[in-house]
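Below is a concrete protein record.
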Amino acid sequence: MSKMGISTIQSYRGAQIFEAVGLDRALVDRHFTGTPSRIGGIGLDALGGEALVRHARGFGAGEISDDGGELPTGGLYQWRRRGELHKWNPATIAALQAAVRLGDRARFAEFERLCDDEDRAPATLRGLFELVEQAPVPLDEVEPVAAIVRRFVSGAMSFGSISAEAHETLAIAMNRLGARSNSGEGGEEPHRFEPDENGDLRRSAIKQVASGRFGVTTHYLIHAEDLQIKIAQGAKPGEGGQLPGNKVDERIARVRCSTPGVTLISPPPHHDIYSIEDLAQLVYDLSCVNPAARVSVKLVSELGVGTIAAGVAKARAGCVVIAGTEGGTGAAPLSSLKHAGLPWELGLAETQQVLVANRLRDRVRVQVDGGLRTSRDVIVAALLGAEEFGMATAPLVATGCVMLRKCHLNTCSVGIATQDPELRARYTGRPEHVIAYMTFLAERVREQLAALGARSLDELVGRVELLRPRAADPRNAHPKAQALDLAAILAVPAPGPRRFARARPWDLADHVDHELIRRAAPAIAGGPPVELALPIDNARRAVGTLLSGEIARRCGARGLPDGAIKVRLVGSAGQSFGAFLAPGVTLELCGDANDYVGKGMSGGRIVVAPPASARFAPEHNVIIGNVALYGATAGDLFACGLAGERFAARNSGARAVVEGAGDHGCEYMTGGVVVVLGAVGRNFAAGMSGGTAYVFDPAQALRARCNLETVELEAVVEDSDLWLLHGLIEDHVRFTASPLGRRLLDTWDHVAARFVKVMPTDYKRVLEARRAAARPKPGQLAVVGGTR
C-alpha cells in the first residue's frame, strides 16, 4: 500500500488499481467487475487447464516431461536453462557484446534475430504484429545514420543505482553521437558539467526532476538540454525510485544532499503536483530557471495515460515520455520487479490516439522506453506514434552487464550496479561500445525504412495502418496469443496531424525577472550590492527564478556573496515565489505568498512578513501556502505567520523558521533545520530520514501529531541545540520583526524547555557512529599541539 501512496485500508479496498492483461472479457466482467481489460485473452477453461497441468507436475505419477519428471526451475527473476523465457539471455548478451567489441555487423544482425524471433515463444505484444509490405526505396535516399541516432536516448539510470564509471560512459557516448543521456533522479556531480581536455562531455543532456528531488539544484538544472519531470516509473508505477542504504556512500550522499547509509525513496506523488494545473506550474518553473531547455514529462503506460498526456501538452511541455514495464529496476528490491507496469505498446497507442483526436499531437513530441532492443522495436514504436526512443538495459549490456540481477545488493561483479570500489575497478565498459550499439541500431533502422518505402523516420510516425496482427502458423500457434484482441492497439486515429510540428512553450517575455536582471546586472558581474524595490501581485509567478538561473549560468553553483542582490516586494506573491533561488539573492516580501514558496531553493534568503500596520496576530494567520521549501537544498526562509500543508517536504539543506505548519510537515526530509514556533498538523515528520526539526510544544500535543515511524522526540538539552535554536529565532526576529519570536526570546529561560527536538533515527545512528569512530580507542594517546 505504501508503495502505491495509499494510506488506509478503506482507500485500498475496491480501488481496482490494476488492469487485467490477457484475460477474457466475460471472465473479467463476472469475477473482476469493473476492471479494465483492453486486449482480452483466455477464460476459465484455459486457467483451469493450466492449474491441472501444474498439479500434475507436482503430484502426478510417472514421467511427464523431457526433464525426467523434475519440477520446472522457474526463472522468473533470472534466466534459467529450462525456465521462463527472457529476452536477455546468454545467447543475446554474448551476441551483442561480441558485436560492439569487434565492430561486427553480422553479429549484431544475429543479436537482432535472436531478440525478434517470437515464432515459437511469443513474449511481447509487438511480437504479435507484422509489418505491411511497401514498395521499397533506394537506401541512399534514406536519411543518414547521424539523423536517426539523434532520436535515441539512454535510459534514466541514476548515479547511485549504477556506478560513476558506467554513468559517465553512457553520457560520453551519447554526447559524442549528438544524442542524449539521462541523469536519472540522483543528481550529477558538478565537475561533469565542464568538458574534458579531449573535448568529451560527461554531462547528461537530460536532467531528471523526480518526486525525491535528489540533487536538484539551480546549477544542476541550468546544465540541461531537456528537463524531465518524472511523474512515475514504468517498471513500478506509483512506487518511485529507491536506493538501498548500502549503496549510499559519502559521494552519493553528497550529490543527493542526504546522509550516507540511509535508504533513499522517491515518494509516490510529487508533492507539488495534485492536479494538471500543478503540473503546468512545475513546467513553468523549470522553463523559467532554464528557458533554453525543453521540458518533458515521463508518464507510465497504463489505462488513461492518453488523457494525462493531453494535459501535459496543454501544460506546454515539449515532450511526453511513455514508459513501459520492462527495465527500470537497477536499484529496486525483487518485490518490485513483477506484476507492475504494462507494455509500452498499450500506453503509446492510447497516447497517440488521444492526442490526435484532441488536435494536440502536433505541439508535443512523444518518446517511448521500456525494453527496446532492436531496430524492429524502433520501427514498431514509430508506427504507433513515437518520435524518440529510449534504451537503457541494452547500452548497459553493451558495456559489460551480464544480467546477474544483483543490482540492489551492491555486489555487481562487473562494476556497473555497485558503489563498491573493488567491484567498480572491474568495470571494462567504454564509450565506444555504446556508440557501436547505437550506430548499428541506427543502420538497421535505416535499412528497414528503405524496405518500407520511407525516406525518414518522420514519414513513419503514427502510420499504424502499416501494422497488422501476425498471421498464425498452425504448427507454432500459441493458444494464448491467438486469444488476444489487438484492435485497441492497432486502431487508426481520427483525422489530424499524427506527429510533432511546432513547440508551444511558455511565453516568458513579460516575466518580472527581466527587469530584476537588468537592474541587478552590476552585482551579477561582481560589482557592489544592489537593492531593488517593486510591487507584486499574484499574477507574477516564480519571482526570482529567472534571475537565479541567470546567476547560476554566470557564477556557477556558488552564486553571489550573501546580500549581493536584495529585492523588497510589497503585495501578494503568486505561486513558486523564490523557486530555485540562487545564493546571494534575498527576497523580502511585505505581504503574503501562494503555494510553493522556496521550491527547490538552492541558497539565498526568503523573508515573508505582514505589513507593520496589520491588525491581526501573525502567529494565527497563514502567510505562505502549501508545499513551501519542497526539495530545497540550501538557503534560509523566515515566515512571520503560519505555513500551509507539506511544509519543508523533502527539504535537504535549507534552514527555516515558521510560526506553525499544516499537515505532513517535514515529510521525507533528509537534511537542513526547521524551527516551528507553533502547532503542527497531522503526520509531522513522516518518512523523515535526515536533518533536524525543533517544535515549540507547550501543550504537549506533538507526540499525537507526529509520525514516529522514522523519528524520535527528544528534549532540547544539548548546548549545541540550544545555541542553534536561539540563534535561528534571533534571525527570525531580526528579519521579520515577529512579535511571537520576540516574546520567546524575552522569556527564553522559561520557554526553552518546551521545545521538542525531532530527530530521525537513521540520522542519529549515523551521527553516533561518526562520533564513535572519531573517539580515541582505548590505549591510544591523543597528541595535542605539535608532534613528537
Summary: Residues 431-451 form the longest helix (21 residues).
